[in-house]
Amino acid sequence: MSDSASRPAIRVGLFVTCLVDLFRPSIGFAAVKLLEDAGCRVEVPDAQTCCGQPAYNSGDKADTKAIARQVMSAFTGFDYIVAPSGSCAGMLRTHYPELFADEPDFLPEVEQFAERCYELVSFLTDVLKVERVAARYNGVATYHDSCSGLRELGVRAQPRQLLRSVVGLSLKELPGADVCCGFGGTFCIKYPDISERMASDKIADAAATGADTLLAGDLGCLLNMAGKASRQGRPIRVRHVAEVLADMSGDVSPIGAPAERR
């Protein structure tokens, strides 16, 4: 028996995220498949809740701390905590230590937790060293870099690397791929006119590539862009990158598309 075969499986706690749980559970199932295919033992703690980002962005530090403590408790004992979202993973990995910087006795525990938190595709490539996936997608896709994943976690090359291994997929670079789509959590509520223009520009850039599919790693961004594309009558499919990498895109309609009758 090889060393890799005898080595215990990595125990991963999947942080599903609120939006995935409520609007697109297929992303969670795709994440589980990708992690299990890479040799991980995946568990989804029932006690997990929101990461606390909405409260944190709104300046509610006390409630954010209470949420963070609950999240850390729910994910006790896992080797890693993985989220199919750069935004939520960025909150866990980057902002939790900032949040508890004024509690020096508790901060080391928070930092140890944060070090084990990763965005899904980054975890697959950077930690598990996955170089390719067994998937097929017939189409031309372009990829939007979500703000938190790109700027807080350095997620850029990783999804493109794995997407290039998808049979039948042609990947075209999106002009301004690193420009915000206008969602920005509470930004789209506080500044709707600016957000609206940013989303329109993003969809126009995606359409200009000639791609039939728009991909990203954050459901908030995807819902925002899919809504704008639908209102403009743009014939572009919007999907989470995990659904394509897990070869599960044929199981569900594109994001924002009317649900199919069964």
Keywords, separated by commas or semicolons:
Glutathione S-transferase Yfyf (Class Pi), Chain A, domain 2; 262 residues; alpha/beta; 4-stranded parallel sheet
Q: TL;DR of this structure?
A:
With 262 residues, this protein is an alpha/beta fold.
Can you walk me through this structure?
- The chain is of the alpha/beta class.
- The model has no long low-confidence stretch (mean pLDDT 94).
- It is globular and about 55 Å long.
- It has two domains: 124 residues, Glutathione S-transferase Yfyf (Class Pi), Chain A, domain 2 (Up-down Bundle); 121 residues, Rossmann fold (3-Layer(aba) Sandwich), CATH 3.40.50.11810.
Radius of gyration using CA atoms only: 18 Å
* Alpha carbon gap, first and last residue: 46 Å
Structural class of the helices, strands and pairings? alpha/beta
Stretches where pLDDT is under 50 for at least 5 consecutive residues are none
SSE pattern, N- to C-terminal: HEHHEHHEHHEHEHHEHHEHEH
- CATH fold category name of the largest domain: Glutathione S-transferase Yfyf (Class Pi), Chain A, domain 2
How many beta-strand segments? 8
Percent range of helical residues: 40-55%
Count every helix, treating DSSP H or I runs of 4 or more residues as helices. 14
Overall tally of domains: 2
Average pLDDT number:
94
**Beta-strand percentage range:** 5-15%
Shape: globular
Biggest sheet, spatial arrangement of strands: 2-1-3-4
CATH C-level class of the largest domain? Mainly Alpha
Instruction: Give the name of the CATH architecture of the largest domain.
Output: Up-down Bundle
For the sheet with most strands, the description reads: 4 strands, parallel
